[in-house]
Amino acid sequence: MNPAQRESGKLRIRRHKLSAAALATVLVGSGTFAASSEAWAGTAAPTGTPVKAELAGSASKGGGTVDQSLVARIRKAAQRQGLVGSSPEAQNGKGAGAARIIGGTPVPITSAPSMVQLWYLNWDGSAQFCGGTLVAPDKVLTAAHCVAGLSWKNNGIVVSGTAGLWTGENGKLAGVWRQWSHPDYHGDTRDDIRNDIAVLTLDRGLTAKTTKLAVPGDNTPYKPGTVGTVYGWGLTKDADDPEADLSPRLLKASLPIVADSTCNTALNALPETAGYFKAGGMFCAGKPGTGSDATTVASCHGDSGGPLVVGGRVVGIVSWGAPNCVEEGGYDVFTKVSTFAVAALARITDTDWNSDGKADLLARDAKGNGYAYSGPTLRSRSSIGSGWKSYNKVLQTDLDRDGIVDLVMRGTNGSLYWRHYNGRSWVNTRVSTGWGSIRQIVAPGDLTGDDLPDLLSVDKAGTVWVYPGKGNGKFGARIKAGSGFKSYTHLVGHGDFTGDGKVDLVGRTAAGGLYLWPGKGNGKFGARKTLSATGFKSANALAATGDVNGDGKADLLVRFTNGTLYLYPGKGNGSFGARVKMGTGSWKAYTILG
Q1: Where does the record locate the signal sequence feature (predicted)?
Q2: How many CB atoms lie within 10 A of CB 37?
Q3: Which of 344, 369, 389 is the last residue of a domain?
């Protein structure tokens, strides 16, 4: 048993029985393209729109009210546990009361707008609580021990926009559409606790401000003595105190980063935490516990999953710590986000067609029939309807960040369309005309660093343009990102190939050269890197849809003239592993892969 999973009253585990009426009442739940030949239109798609191309299981998604049956069950759990309501003052982060995480101070939600509350109904009818951080409009970063083994889609809700512990009347509610926890987190061994990170995809986009993750591999924020800020609604007293309770309002505390050696020595000296600290995947912050909640500053039960913020980025996730939260000589332990940022970003920026946590591939044959192939093997095929013959480019993205895969499609008439779900049905919006001569169109994700998906094109002169997304299917004024791309027959990208948290591109020339351009996160790219000088001469299709094999790194798909499709697994360092055959000659029948 690891410290993050001990019974209530020991550590900041997820299963602290809720208090403070969090669940007591009923819920209810234009920029333009620059080129004159690419003017906005906004009219309906032409005849032949693939109206049957619906996402599997998506009919229940898209911004309605939170499941009232779930609300009723959570209410009953709250009533059985004797929960009481928090005051209006507490909801605003004001008023009297225990002003501490343990030793913290109250803050309004405007000071930490990305903080969210995670409420879950357990199988036995009890409720549990964790914190989380909104890292994209529809994505929440939290701890794996708050997520693993649970069904958040069926039993959980997320509350944003309030400093007060949720009463049923405050905050904005969202359901959970899907969940991902680190595949190497199992929570039952000293090694598995190292991977305590998870991402929830919400059933709608939220309007609260988001917070970025630590830069992958960057150790600068973890320098000993650097002060971070932890936020949460967790216990305000020693976890062994029978009067310990969740805070009725959001609290923060300043904690200095502790050297790994210091942390390891201190935790090994405590019987219940000896051997659990693993440098590299976790770190300590704060000052040693004093044994008293009057003089200790620390996170505690209920703070699990919440962030430790340094320089405006989430560098840590509240994970575990010494017994009872104030143990003399003990420290708070946080997941080291920079270690796992690449894997988490693959989920934050994913386009997961069938909601299984892995990127998928769309294909169209010459007759206009469309199919979705599911990762990681691409051997499971489902029809996405007919009517695709009117399009010569189809790309997966999520322009409105609602968690449902959108499509960017170019019609044979040269118009560009955005296919998306509006909460009731699938609609096609023509967003631009005059794209018939555009050489390349790519939907790679966020190129500009604002957490909103962008669009990239290469015009007939070989000039590269970035169209910054606005998060609503519209785009700002285009940005020139490069030139000299006339010789590239293919240009693709989705996600981060280099492991720095920025979106990259891969392109191929007719001579068989394969090249990578590292994104800078500002709409520009670094110098190209040669992946192969001539090895891809017989390739006739490239596709990049994200992390196909589920290892947390963006992958590349390549089809050759003999119809064989290969997966080139990304290594997260700008290179790819040995190719894996995904299919043979049957892939020759497809005229679009995307």
Answers
A1: 1-34
A2: 14
A3: 344
pLDDT per position in the chain (594 positions), as tens? 344 332 222 233 343 332 222 222 111 222 222 222 222 233 333 333 333 333 333 334 555 677 877 866 766 665 565 443 332 222 333 322 223 356 678 899 999 999 999 998 888 887 788 999 999 989 999 999 999 989 999 999 999 999 988 877 888 999 998 899 998 887 766 666 889 999 999 988 898 999 999 988 899 999 999 999 999 887 665 555 555 567 778 999 999 999 999 999 999 988 888 888 999 999 999 887 767 676 667 777 778 899 999 999 999 999 988 767 777 778 899 999 999 998 898 888 887 888 787 899 999 999 999 999 998 999 999 999 988 999 999 999 999 888 788 999 999 999 999 999 887 888 999 999 999 999 999 999 999 988 889 999 999 999 999 999 999 999 999 999 999 999 999 999 999 999 888 999 999 999 999 999 999 999 999 999 999 999 999 999 999 999 999 888 999 999 999 999 999 999 999 999 999 999 998 999 999 999
What distance in Å separates the CA atoms of residue 70 and residue 316, rounded to the nearest whole number? 31
Q: How far is Cα 490 from Cα 543, in angstroms, rounded to an integer?
A: 9
Q: Is there a single domain that holds both residue 333 and residue 376? A: no
Cis preceding-peptide flag for 518 (omega within 30 of 0): no
Which residue, 329, 316, 326, is CA-closest to 285? 316
Adjacent-strand bridge partners of 44: 429
Rounded to two decimals, the pTM is 0.79
Burial class (CB in 10 A: 0-12, 13-18, 19+), 123: exposed
User: Is 330 in the same domain as 383?
Assistant: no
Is residue 63 in some structural domain? no
Check whether residue 403 and residue 511 sit in a common domain.
yes
Long-range CB pairs of 528-536 (<8 Å, 24+ gap) are 529/574, 531/506, 531/575, 531/576, 536/508, 536/512
Instruction: Measure the CA–CA gap between 108 and 149, rounded to whole angstroms.
Output: 33
**Chain mean position to CA 455:** 19
End residue of a domain, out of 344, 379, 405: 344
* 88 found inside a domain: no
CATH (domain of 153):
2.40.10.10
Do 208 and 144 fall into the same domain? yes
